[in-house]
Protein backbone atom coordinates (compact mmCIF):
# COMPACT_ATOMS: atom_id res chain seq x y z
CA UNK A 1 0.00 0.00 0.00
CA UNK A 2 1.21 3.47 -0.75
CA UNK A 3 3.11 5.20 1.99
CA UNK A 4 1.36 8.56 2.14
CA UNK A 5 -2.07 7.39 1.13
CA UNK A 6 -3.58 8.21 4.51
CA UNK A 7 -4.36 11.85 3.70
CA UNK A 8 -5.97 10.85 0.43
CA UNK A 9 -8.10 8.25 2.15
CA UNK A 10 -9.15 10.67 4.86
CA UNK A 11 -10.30 13.03 2.13
CA UNK A 12 -12.23 10.28 0.40
CA UNK A 13 -13.77 9.23 3.71
CA UNK A 14 -15.03 12.74 4.39
CA UNK A 15 -16.75 12.81 1.02
CA UNK A 16 -19.34 11.94 -0.53
CA UNK A 17 -19.99 15.05 3.33
CA UNK A 18 -31.00 17.77 2.81
CA UNK A 19 -33.49 19.05 5.17
CA UNK A 20 -36.39 22.21 6.15
CA UNK A 21 -39.66 21.39 7.43
CA UNK A 22 -40.77 17.80 7.12
CA UNK A 23 -44.38 18.84 6.43
CA UNK A 24 -44.49 17.74 2.79
CA UNK A 25 -41.19 15.86 2.78
CA UNK A 26 -42.26 12.84 4.85
CA UNK A 27 -45.30 11.99 6.97
CA UNK A 28 -45.31 8.95 9.22
CA UNK A 29 -47.97 6.33 8.55
CA UNK A 30 -50.04 5.20 11.51
CA UNK A 31 -48.50 1.72 11.25
CA UNK A 32 -44.88 2.92 11.16
CA UNK A 33 -42.91 0.81 13.60
CA UNK A 34 -39.85 1.29 15.68
CA UNK A 35 -37.21 -0.92 14.09
CA UNK A 36 -35.77 -3.77 16.13
CA UNK A 37 -32.43 -3.38 17.81
CA UNK A 38 -29.90 -3.30 15.01
CA UNK A 39 -27.21 -5.13 16.93
CA UNK A 40 -27.76 -8.11 19.19
CA UNK A 41 -25.65 -10.89 20.63
CA UNK A 42 -25.79 -14.32 19.02
CA UNK A 43 -27.67 -16.90 21.03
CA UNK A 44 -27.75 -20.65 20.78
CA UNK A 45 -30.85 -22.75 20.29
CA UNK A 46 -31.46 -26.01 22.12
CA UNK A 47 -29.33 -27.90 19.62
CA UNK A 48 -26.34 -25.67 20.22
CA UNK A 49 -26.52 -24.00 16.78
CA UNK A 50 -25.73 -20.29 16.62
CA UNK A 51 -28.70 -18.15 15.67
CA UNK A 52 -28.47 -15.10 13.44
CA UNK A 53 -26.52 -12.18 14.86
CA UNK A 54 -28.87 -9.61 13.31
CA UNK A 55 -32.50 -9.37 12.32
CA UNK A 56 -33.76 -7.19 9.46
CA UNK A 57 -36.32 -4.52 10.27
CA UNK A 58 -37.83 -1.34 8.88
CA UNK A 59 -39.96 1.72 9.54
CA UNK A 60 -42.35 3.04 6.88
CA UNK A 61 -43.65 6.50 6.09
CA UNK A 62 -44.97 8.50 3.15
CA UNK A 63 -44.21 11.89 1.69
CA UNK A 64 -44.49 14.23 -1.26
CA UNK A 65 -41.78 16.21 -3.02
CA UNK A 66 -42.11 18.54 -6.00
CA UNK A 67 -39.54 18.22 -8.78
CA UNK A 68 -39.77 20.21 -12.00
CA UNK A 69 -43.09 21.61 -10.86
CA UNK A 70 -44.63 18.13 -10.54
CA UNK A 71 -45.59 16.72 -7.12
CA UNK A 72 -44.34 13.18 -6.52
CA UNK A 73 -45.98 11.11 -3.78
CA UNK A 74 -43.69 8.41 -2.44
CA UNK A 75 -43.39 5.61 0.09
CA UNK A 76 -40.28 5.76 2.28
CA UNK A 77 -38.70 2.80 4.02
CA UNK A 78 -35.80 3.03 6.48
CA UNK A 79 -34.50 -0.36 7.44
CA UNK A 80 -31.83 -3.05 7.40
CA UNK A 81 -31.03 -6.19 5.45
CA UNK A 82 -28.63 -8.83 6.73
CA UNK A 83 -25.83 -9.92 4.40
CA UNK A 84 -23.27 -12.63 4.90
CA UNK A 85 -19.57 -12.57 4.23
CA UNK A 86 -17.99 -14.02 1.14
CA UNK A 87 -16.24 -17.34 1.60
CA UNK A 88 -13.77 -15.40 3.69
CA UNK A 89 -11.86 -18.47 4.83
CA UNK A 90 -10.64 -18.96 1.27
CA UNK A 91 -8.61 -15.73 1.37
CA UNK A 92 -6.01 -17.44 3.53
CA UNK A 93 -5.35 -21.07 2.74
CA UNK A 94 -3.62 -21.76 6.07
CA UNK A 95 -6.52 -20.37 8.06
CA UNK A 96 -8.99 -22.00 5.71
CA UNK A 97 -7.54 -25.42 6.39
CA UNK A 98 -7.63 -24.74 10.13
CA UNK A 99 -11.25 -23.62 10.05
CA UNK A 100 -12.36 -26.53 7.89
CA UNK A 101 -10.72 -28.96 10.24
CA UNK A 102 -12.58 -27.74 13.31
CA UNK A 103 -16.15 -27.74 14.43
CA UNK A 104 -17.48 -24.59 12.74
CA UNK A 105 -20.00 -23.98 15.50
CA UNK A 106 -17.19 -23.85 18.04
CA UNK A 107 -15.17 -21.54 15.81
CA UNK A 108 -17.64 -18.76 16.54
CA UNK A 109 -20.58 -17.21 14.68
CA UNK A 110 -20.04 -16.58 10.99
CA UNK A 111 -19.59 -12.91 10.14
CA UNK A 112 -22.70 -10.95 9.21
CA UNK A 113 -23.50 -7.35 8.40
CA UNK A 114 -26.71 -5.51 9.11
CA UNK A 115 -26.81 -2.98 6.25
CA UNK A 116 -28.97 0.11 6.71
CA UNK A 117 -30.85 1.68 3.81
CA UNK A 118 -33.45 4.28 3.02
CA UNK A 119 -35.65 3.51 0.02
CA UNK A 120 -38.05 5.82 -1.76
CA UNK A 121 -40.70 4.41 -4.12
CA UNK A 122 -42.91 6.63 -6.27
CA UNK A 123 -46.55 5.79 -5.66
CA UNK A 124 -48.92 4.71 -8.39
CA UNK A 125 -46.44 3.45 -10.99
CA UNK A 126 -45.80 -0.16 -12.07
CA UNK A 127 -42.55 -1.39 -10.56
CA UNK A 128 -41.71 -3.56 -13.57
CA UNK A 129 -40.99 -0.52 -15.76
CA UNK A 130 -39.91 1.94 -13.06
CA UNK A 131 -36.10 2.39 -12.86
CA UNK A 132 -34.45 1.79 -9.50
CA UNK A 133 -31.07 3.27 -8.52
CA UNK A 134 -28.83 2.07 -5.68
CA UNK A 135 -26.67 4.90 -4.33
CA UNK A 136 -23.68 4.89 -2.00
CA UNK A 137 -20.72 7.01 -0.95
CA UNK A 138 -17.26 5.63 -0.47
CA UNK A 139 -14.43 6.20 1.99
CA UNK A 140 -13.80 3.35 2.39
CA UNK A 141 -15.75 3.57 5.62
CA UNK A 142 -18.11 6.40 4.74
CA UNK A 143 -21.84 6.36 5.29
CA UNK A 144 -24.14 7.58 2.52
CA UNK A 145 -25.46 10.59 4.43
CA UNK A 146 -23.83 12.88 1.84
CA UNK A 147 -25.66 11.72 -1.27
CA UNK A 148 -28.82 11.13 0.74
CA UNK A 149 -28.97 14.58 2.36
CA UNK A 150 -27.05 16.67 -0.16
CA UNK A 151 -27.97 15.44 -3.60
CA UNK A 152 -30.95 13.28 -4.51
CA UNK A 153 -33.10 12.41 -1.50
CA UNK A 154 -36.51 14.07 -1.04
CA UNK A 155 -35.04 16.57 1.43
CA UNK A 156 -31.62 18.24 1.55
CA UNK A 157 -29.63 20.38 3.93
CA UNK A 158 -28.78 23.92 2.87
CA UNK A 159 -25.10 24.77 3.31
CA UNK A 160 -23.13 27.93 2.63
CA UNK A 161 -21.22 27.58 -0.63
CA UNK A 162 -17.47 27.98 -0.23
CA UNK A 163 -17.32 28.59 3.52
CA UNK A 164 -18.41 27.35 6.94
CA UNK A 165 -22.13 26.73 7.54
CA UNK A 166 -23.22 27.83 11.05
CA UNK A 167 -26.20 26.58 13.04
CA UNK A 168 -29.18 26.66 12.99
CA UNK A 169 -29.24 24.44 9.92
CA UNK A 170 -31.93 24.76 7.27
CA UNK A 171 -33.57 21.77 5.62
CA UNK A 172 -35.74 22.05 2.52
CA UNK A 173 -37.80 19.82 0.28
CA UNK A 174 -35.39 18.85 -2.49
CA UNK A 175 -36.59 20.05 -5.87
CA UNK A 176 -33.57 18.25 -7.41
CA UNK A 177 -34.48 14.80 -6.08
CA UNK A 178 -34.01 11.97 -8.60
CA UNK A 179 -37.46 10.64 -7.74
CA UNK A 180 -38.65 12.27 -10.95
CA UNK A 181 -36.79 9.61 -12.94
CA UNK A 182 -36.07 6.65 -10.62
CA UNK A 183 -36.90 4.99 -7.34
CA UNK A 184 -33.95 5.42 -4.96
CA UNK A 185 -32.15 3.20 -2.45
CA UNK A 186 -29.40 4.82 -0.34
CA UNK A 187 -27.15 2.24 1.35
CA UNK A 188 -24.71 2.56 4.26
CA UNK A 189 -21.59 0.40 4.05
CA UNK A 190 -21.01 -2.33 6.65
CA UNK A 191 -19.90 -0.72 9.90
CA UNK A 192 -20.86 2.83 8.86
CA UNK A 193 -24.05 4.80 9.43
CA UNK A 194 -26.55 2.51 11.14
CA UNK A 195 -24.92 -0.54 9.54
CA UNK A 196 -23.06 -2.92 11.82
CA UNK A 197 -20.87 -6.01 11.52
CA UNK A 198 -20.45 -8.94 13.90
CA UNK A 199 -19.16 -12.48 14.05
CA UNK A 200 -15.79 -14.17 13.90
CA UNK A 201 -13.12 -12.08 12.11
CA UNK A 202 -15.77 -9.56 11.11
CA UNK A 203 -13.28 -6.88 9.99
CA UNK A 204 -11.47 -9.34 7.74
CA UNK A 205 -14.81 -10.49 6.35
CA UNK A 206 -16.11 -7.05 5.31
CA UNK A 207 -13.28 -4.51 5.21
CA UNK A 208 -11.69 -5.04 1.83
CA UNK A 209 -12.17 -4.35 -1.87
CA UNK A 210 -13.64 -7.71 -2.83
CA UNK A 211 -15.36 -8.30 0.52
CA UNK A 212 -17.11 -4.93 0.17
CA UNK A 213 -18.18 -5.63 -3.42
CA UNK A 214 -19.63 -8.96 -2.30
CA UNK A 215 -21.59 -7.42 0.60
CA UNK A 216 -23.20 -4.77 -1.60
CA UNK A 217 -23.95 -7.32 -4.32
CA UNK A 218 -25.63 -9.55 -1.74
CA UNK A 219 -27.61 -6.55 -0.51
CA UNK A 220 -28.84 -5.62 -4.00
CA UNK A 221 -29.98 -9.14 -4.89
CA UNK A 222 -31.81 -9.47 -1.57
CA UNK A 223 -33.45 -6.09 -2.08
CA UNK A 224 -34.65 -7.01 -5.57
CA UNK A 225 -36.31 -10.11 -4.14
CA UNK A 226 -37.79 -8.45 -1.04
CA UNK A 227 -39.43 -5.64 -3.00
CA UNK A 228 -40.12 -7.55 -6.27
CA UNK A 229 -37.87 -5.35 -8.42
CA UNK A 230 -36.09 -7.95 -10.54
CA UNK A 231 -37.80 -6.73 -13.73
CA UNK A 232 -37.02 -3.04 -13.16
CA UNK A 233 -34.26 -1.20 -15.09
CA UNK A 234 -31.41 -1.14 -12.54
CA UNK A 235 -28.69 1.44 -11.90
CA UNK A 236 -25.76 1.91 -9.56
CA UNK A 237 -24.64 5.38 -8.45
CA UNK A 238 -21.29 5.44 -6.67
CA UNK A 239 -19.33 8.42 -5.42
CA UNK A 240 -15.59 8.51 -4.67
CA UNK A 241 -14.47 5.09 -3.39
CA UNK A 242 -18.05 4.12 -4.17
CA UNK A 243 -17.10 4.28 -7.85
CA UNK A 244 -14.58 1.47 -7.29
CA UNK A 245 -17.34 -0.48 -5.56
CA UNK A 246 -19.84 0.25 -8.35
CA UNK A 247 -17.45 -0.73 -11.15
CA UNK A 248 -16.61 -3.96 -9.36
CA UNK A 249 -20.29 -4.66 -8.74
CA UNK A 250 -21.14 -4.47 -12.45
CA UNK A 251 -19.39 -7.79 -12.98
CA UNK A 252 -20.31 -9.28 -9.59
CA UNK A 253 -23.99 -8.59 -10.22
CA UNK A 254 -23.76 -10.11 -13.68
CA UNK A 255 -22.45 -13.28 -12.08
CA UNK A 256 -25.55 -13.15 -9.86
CA UNK A 257 -27.78 -12.91 -12.99
CA UNK A 258 -28.41 -9.18 -12.61
CA UNK A 259 -27.91 -7.08 -15.73
CA UNK A 260 -27.60 -3.34 -15.15
CA UNK A 261 -29.02 -0.69 -17.44
CA UNK A 262 -26.35 1.74 -16.31
CA UNK A 263 -23.68 2.68 -13.81
CA UNK A 264 -23.16 6.30 -12.75
CA UNK A 265 -19.77 7.34 -11.39
CA UNK A 266 -19.20 10.58 -9.49
CA UNK A 267 -15.61 11.60 -8.69
CA UNK A 268 -14.24 8.28 -9.81
CA UNK A 269 -11.15 6.37 -8.74
CA UNK A 270 -11.02 3.00 -10.50
CA UNK A 271 -7.25 2.51 -10.73
CA UNK A 272 -5.35 3.33 -7.54
CA UNK A 273 -2.07 3.52 -9.36
CA UNK A 274 -3.26 7.02 -10.22
CA UNK A 275 -3.37 7.94 -6.53
CA UNK A 276 -0.66 10.42 -5.46
CA UNK A 277 2.23 9.66 -3.16
CA UNK A 278 5.29 11.34 -1.70
CA UNK A 279 7.78 11.49 -4.61
CA UNK A 280 10.64 10.98 -2.16
CA UNK A 281 9.17 7.68 -0.98
CA UNK A 282 7.76 6.31 -4.23
CA UNK A 283 9.98 7.61 -7.06
CA UNK A 284 9.26 6.73 -10.67
CA UNK A 285 5.45 6.81 -10.38
CA UNK A 286 4.61 9.95 -12.35
CA UNK A 287 1.04 9.56 -13.65
CA UNK A 288 -0.57 11.00 -10.46
CA UNK A 289 1.18 14.34 -11.08
CA UNK A 290 -0.01 14.39 -14.69
CA UNK A 291 -3.67 13.82 -13.89
CA UNK A 292 -3.70 16.29 -10.96
CA UNK A 293 -2.22 19.22 -12.89
CA UNK A 294 -5.47 20.37 -14.59
CA UNK A 295 -7.19 20.55 -11.20
CA UNK A 296 -4.39 22.71 -9.81
CA UNK A 297 -4.73 24.95 -12.86
CA UNK A 298 -8.51 25.18 -12.42
CA UNK A 299 -7.99 26.23 -8.79
CA UNK A 300 -5.43 28.87 -9.70
CA UNK A 301 -7.89 30.14 -12.32
CA UNK A 302 -10.69 30.28 -9.72
CA UNK A 303 -8.58 32.31 -7.27
CA UNK A 304 -7.26 34.58 -10.05
CA UNK A 305 -3.65 33.54 -9.49
CA UNK A 306 -2.81 33.43 -13.20
CA UNK A 307 -0.90 36.17 -14.99
CA UNK A 308 -3.00 36.13 -18.16
CA UNK A 309 -6.20 34.59 -16.86
CA UNK A 310 -8.36 33.19 -19.71
CA UNK A 311 -12.05 34.01 -19.65
CA UNK A 312 -13.25 30.47 -20.33
CA UNK A 313 -12.25 27.72 -17.89
CA UNK A 314 -12.90 24.74 -20.15
CA UNK A 315 -10.86 26.11 -23.03
CA UNK A 316 -8.03 26.83 -20.60
CA UNK A 317 -8.17 23.31 -19.15
CA UNK A 318 -8.00 21.73 -22.60
CA UNK A 319 -4.70 23.58 -23.05
CA UNK A 320 -3.44 22.38 -19.65
CA UNK A 321 -4.45 18.78 -20.41
CA UNK A 322 -2.45 18.93 -23.63
CA UNK A 323 0.63 20.21 -21.79
CA UNK A 324 0.19 17.66 -18.99
CA UNK A 325 0.20 14.69 -21.38
CA UNK A 326 3.01 15.94 -23.62
CA UNK A 327 5.80 18.24 -22.42
CA UNK A 328 5.13 17.76 -18.72
CA UNK A 329 4.80 13.99 -18.84
CA UNK A 330 7.90 13.69 -21.01
CA UNK A 331 9.89 15.81 -18.55
CA UNK A 332 8.82 13.61 -15.64
CA UNK A 333 9.71 10.43 -17.52
CA UNK A 334 13.25 11.69 -18.14
CA UNK A 335 13.84 11.90 -14.41
CA UNK A 336 17.44 12.76 -13.56
CA UNK A 337 18.34 12.91 -17.26
CA UNK A 338 16.17 16.00 -17.78
CA UNK A 339 18.49 18.83 -18.96
CA UNK A 340 18.58 21.91 -16.70
CA UNK A 341 17.36 24.22 -19.46
CA UNK A 342 14.34 22.01 -20.13
CA UNK A 343 13.68 21.69 -16.40
CA UNK A 344 13.61 25.50 -16.16
CA UNK A 345 11.21 25.80 -19.13
CA UNK A 346 8.82 23.23 -17.70
CA UNK A 347 8.92 24.90 -14.27
CA UNK A 348 7.98 28.21 -15.87
CA UNK A 349 5.05 26.60 -17.69
CA UNK A 350 3.94 24.93 -14.45
CA UNK A 351 4.13 28.26 -12.66
CA UNK A 352 2.04 29.93 -15.35
CA UNK A 353 -0.64 27.24 -14.98
CA UNK A 354 -0.63 26.76 -11.19
CA UNK A 355 0.32 30.14 -9.74
CA UNK A 356 3.14 28.54 -7.72
CA UNK A 357 6.62 30.17 -7.83
CA UNK A 358 9.27 28.74 -10.15
CA UNK A 359 11.86 28.30 -7.33
CA UNK A 360 9.34 26.24 -5.34
CA UNK A 361 8.55 24.02 -8.34
CA UNK A 362 12.24 23.46 -9.01
CA UNK A 363 12.74 22.40 -5.39
CA UNK A 364 9.87 19.89 -5.76
CA UNK A 365 11.55 18.41 -8.83
CA UNK A 366 8.45 19.46 -10.83
CA UNK A 367 6.26 17.10 -8.78
CA UNK A 368 3.59 18.70 -6.60
CA UNK A 369 3.04 16.41 -3.64
CA UNK A 370 -0.52 15.59 -2.59
CA UNK A 371 -1.62 18.25 -0.11
CA UNK A 372 1.19 20.67 -0.99
CA UNK A 373 -0.73 22.72 -3.54
CA UNK A 374 -3.59 23.33 -1.09
CA UNK A 375 -1.10 24.59 1.48
CA UNK A 376 1.00 26.75 -0.90
CA UNK A 377 -1.42 28.51 -3.24
CA UNK A 378 -2.79 30.95 -0.64
CA UNK A 379 0.03 30.42 1.85
CA UNK A 380 1.04 34.09 1.97
CA UNK A 381 -2.48 34.88 3.19
CA UNK A 382 -2.30 32.19 5.88
CA UNK A 383 -5.02 30.18 4.13
CA UNK A 384 -5.38 26.58 3.01
CA UNK A 385 -7.66 25.55 0.15
CA UNK A 386 -9.92 22.55 0.28
CA UNK A 387 -9.00 19.09 -0.95
CA UNK A 388 -12.46 17.79 -1.76
CA UNK A 389 -13.38 21.22 -3.11
CA UNK A 390 -10.63 23.79 -3.54
CA UNK A 391 -13.14 26.64 -3.64
CA UNK A 392 -13.39 26.27 0.14
CA UNK A 393 -10.68 27.94 2.22
CA UNK A 394 -9.70 27.84 5.87
CA UNK A 395 -6.94 28.99 8.16
CA UNK A 396 -3.58 27.27 7.77
CA UNK A 397 -3.10 25.37 11.02
CA UNK A 398 0.66 24.91 10.69
CA UNK A 399 2.44 27.54 8.55
CA UNK A 400 5.65 25.47 8.61
CA UNK A 401 4.07 22.25 7.35
CA UNK A 402 4.83 20.91 3.87
CA UNK A 403 1.25 19.81 3.12
CA UNK A 404 -2.25 20.72 4.25
CA UNK A 405 -3.23 19.15 7.56
CA UNK A 406 -7.02 19.19 7.12
CA UNK A 407 -9.74 19.73 4.55
CA UNK A 408 -11.61 23.03 4.94
CA UNK A 409 -14.68 21.72 3.11
CA UNK A 410 -15.16 18.83 5.53
CA UNK A 411 -14.92 21.22 8.45
CA UNK A 412 -17.32 23.64 6.76
CA UNK A 413 -20.28 21.36 6.06
CA UNK A 414 -19.90 18.09 7.99
CA UNK A 415 -21.78 19.15 11.12
CA UNK A 416 -24.68 20.53 9.09
CA UNK A 417 -25.18 17.26 7.21
CA UNK A 418 -25.11 15.12 10.33
CA UNK A 419 -27.40 17.39 12.36
CA UNK A 420 -29.88 17.48 9.49
CA UNK A 421 -29.84 13.71 9.10
CA UNK A 422 -30.18 12.99 12.82
CA UNK A 423 -33.38 15.04 12.91
CA UNK A 424 -34.81 13.75 9.63
CA UNK A 425 -34.29 10.03 10.21
CA UNK A 426 -35.92 10.09 13.63
CA UNK A 427 -38.69 12.64 13.19
CA UNK A 428 -39.67 12.17 9.54
CA UNK A 429 -38.70 8.58 8.74
CA UNK A 430 -39.56 7.46 12.30
CA UNK A 431 -36.49 5.26 12.46
CA UNK A 432 -35.28 5.30 16.07
CA UNK A 433 -32.59 2.69 16.70
CA UNK A 434 -30.71 2.52 19.97
CA UNK A 435 -27.30 2.76 18.29
CA UNK A 436 -25.31 5.79 17.17
CA UNK A 437 -25.13 6.92 13.56
CA UNK A 438 -21.53 6.82 12.35
CA UNK A 439 -20.95 9.21 9.44
CA UNK A 440 -17.65 7.47 8.82
CA UNK A 441 -15.36 4.94 10.44
CA UNK A 442 -11.53 5.03 10.31
CA UNK A 443 -10.87 1.73 8.53
CA UNK A 444 -8.55 2.77 5.70
CA UNK A 445 -5.51 1.39 7.53
CA UNK A 446 -7.31 -1.94 8.06
CA UNK A 447 -8.69 -2.17 4.53
CA UNK A 448 -7.69 -5.16 2.43
CA UNK A 449 -6.72 -3.58 -0.90
CA UNK A 450 -6.14 -6.85 -2.76
CA UNK A 451 -8.50 -7.38 -5.69
CA UNK A 452 -9.01 -10.40 -7.91
CA UNK A 453 -9.77 -9.11 -11.42
CA UNK A 454 -11.44 -11.30 -14.03
CA UNK A 455 -8.96 -13.78 -15.49
CA UNK A 456 -6.75 -13.89 -12.38
CA UNK A 457 -6.64 -17.08 -10.32
CA UNK A 458 -5.97 -15.22 -7.08
CA UNK A 459 -6.10 -11.67 -5.64
CA UNK A 460 -3.38 -9.38 -6.95
CA UNK A 461 -0.70 -8.07 -4.61
CA UNK A 462 -1.02 -4.53 -5.93
CA UNK A 463 -3.15 -1.44 -5.58
CA UNK A 464 -6.67 -2.26 -6.76
CA UNK A 465 -7.81 -1.64 -10.32
CA UNK A 466 -11.41 -2.43 -11.28
CA UNK A 467 -11.16 -1.32 -14.91
CA UNK A 468 -10.97 -5.00 -15.98
CA UNK A 469 -14.20 -5.73 -14.09
CA UNK A 470 -16.06 -2.88 -15.75
CA UNK A 471 -14.67 -3.83 -19.19
CA UNK A 472 -15.71 -7.45 -18.76
CA UNK A 473 -19.20 -6.42 -17.64
CA UNK A 474 -19.62 -4.07 -20.62
CA UNK A 475 -18.56 -6.77 -23.08
CA UNK A 476 -20.98 -9.29 -21.59
CA UNK A 477 -23.77 -6.71 -21.37
CA UNK A 478 -23.26 -4.37 -24.37
CA UNK A 479 -26.48 -2.49 -23.53
CA UNK A 480 -25.12 -1.23 -20.19
CA UNK A 481 -24.18 2.45 -20.30
CA UNK A 482 -21.62 4.30 -18.16
CA UNK A 483 -21.89 7.91 -17.00
CA UNK A 484 -18.75 9.60 -15.64
CA UNK A 485 -19.10 12.80 -13.59
CA UNK A 486 -16.60 15.00 -11.78
CA UNK A 487 -15.74 18.44 -10.46
CA UNK A 488 -12.96 20.65 -11.78
CA UNK A 489 -11.98 21.71 -8.23
CA UNK A 490 -11.52 18.22 -6.76
CA UNK A 491 -7.96 17.33 -5.73
CA UNK A 492 -8.85 14.02 -4.03
CA UNK A 493 -10.05 12.40 -7.27
CA UNK A 494 -9.06 14.84 -10.04
CA UNK A 495 -11.47 15.02 -12.96
CA UNK A 496 -8.67 14.35 -15.46
CA UNK A 497 -7.86 11.15 -13.61
CA UNK A 498 -11.32 9.89 -14.54
CA UNK A 499 -10.73 10.76 -18.18
CA UNK A 500 -7.38 9.00 -18.23
CA UNK A 501 -8.75 5.89 -16.52
CA UNK A 502 -11.55 5.42 -19.01
CA UNK A 503 -9.20 6.12 -21.92
CA UNK A 504 -7.46 2.91 -20.89
CA UNK A 505 -10.60 0.83 -20.38
CA UNK A 506 -9.92 -2.38 -22.34
CA UNK A 507 -13.08 -2.53 -24.44
CA UNK A 508 -13.51 -2.67 -28.24
CA UNK A 509 -14.21 0.51 -30.18
CA UNK A 510 -17.92 -0.26 -30.59
CA UNK A 511 -18.43 -0.08 -26.81
CA UNK A 512 -16.56 3.17 -26.17
CA UNK A 513 -19.66 5.07 -27.24
CA UNK A 514 -21.45 3.60 -24.19
CA UNK A 515 -19.45 5.98 -21.99
CA UNK A 516 -20.32 9.66 -21.52
CA UNK A 517 -18.60 12.37 -19.49
CA UNK A 518 -19.94 15.36 -17.56
CA UNK A 519 -17.78 17.84 -15.63
CA UNK A 520 -18.82 20.76 -13.44
CA UNK A 521 -17.42 23.90 -11.86
CA UNK A 522 -17.55 22.39 -8.40
CA UNK A 523 -15.57 19.93 -6.28
CA UNK A 524 -15.66 16.29 -5.26
CA UNK A 525 -19.25 16.60 -4.01
CA UNK A 526 -20.42 18.58 -7.01
CA UNK A 527 -23.91 18.92 -5.52
CA UNK A 528 -22.81 21.25 -2.69
CA UNK A 529 -22.60 24.05 -5.29
CA UNK A 530 -26.30 24.87 -5.96
CA UNK A 531 -25.97 25.61 -9.71
CA UNK A 532 -24.14 22.35 -10.34
CA UNK A 533 -26.67 20.37 -8.29
CA UNK A 534 -29.26 21.46 -10.85
CA UNK A 535 -26.94 20.48 -13.72
CA UNK A 536 -26.07 17.15 -12.13
CA UNK A 537 -29.70 16.29 -11.49
CA UNK A 538 -30.71 17.15 -15.05
CA UNK A 539 -27.83 15.18 -16.55
CA UNK A 540 -28.39 12.07 -14.40
CA UNK A 541 -32.18 12.15 -14.86
CA UNK A 542 -31.69 12.45 -18.61
CA UNK A 543 -29.19 9.57 -18.59
CA UNK A 544 -31.66 7.31 -16.78
CA UNK A 545 -34.55 8.23 -19.06
CA UNK A 546 -32.49 7.69 -22.22
CA UNK A 547 -31.06 4.35 -21.14
CA UNK A 548 -34.11 2.84 -19.44
CA UNK A 549 -36.85 3.82 -21.84
CA UNK A 550 -38.64 5.48 -18.91
CA UNK A 551 -41.12 8.21 -19.67
Task: Provide structural commentary.
By secondary structure, the chain is an alpha/beta fold. It folds into two domains: 5-273 and 414-548, Rossmann fold (3-Layer(aba) Sandwich), CATH 3.40.50.1820; 280-406, no CATH class. Helices cover 34% and strands 16% of the residues. It has 16 helices and 15 strands. The protein has helices at residues 5-14, 93-100, 145-152, 202-206, 209-226, 241-255, 287-302, 313-334, 340-354, 358-363, 372-376, 408-427, 467-476, 495-503, 509-512, 530-548, and strands spanning 27-28, 57-67, 70-84, 112-122, 132-136, 155-158, 170-173, 183-187, 196-198, 234-239, 262-266, 383-385, 393-395, 481-487, 515-520. Strands 1, 2, 3, 4, 5, 8, 9, 10, 11, 14 and 15 form an eleven-stranded mixed sheet that branches. A hairpin with a 7-residue loop joins strand 12 (383-385) and strand 13. Helix 6 runs parallel beside helix 13, helix 7 packs antiparallel against helix 8 and helix 7 runs antiparallel to helix 14. The longest helix has 22 residues, at 313-334. The chain is globular, with a radius of gyration of 24 Å. Mean pLDDT is 87; it is low at 1-50 and 89-105.
What attributes does this structure have?
two-stranded antiparallel sheet; single chain; 11-stranded mixed β-sheet; 16% strand; 551 residues; globular; Rossmann fold; disordered N terminus; alpha/beta
CATH first level of the largest domain: which class?
Alpha Beta
CATH-assigned fold name of the largest domain: Rossmann fold
Q: Describe the biggest sheet? A: 11 strands, mixed
Mean pLDDT: 87
Q: Would you report the number of β strands?
A: 15
Alpha carbon gap, first and last residue: 46 Å
Structural class category: alpha/beta
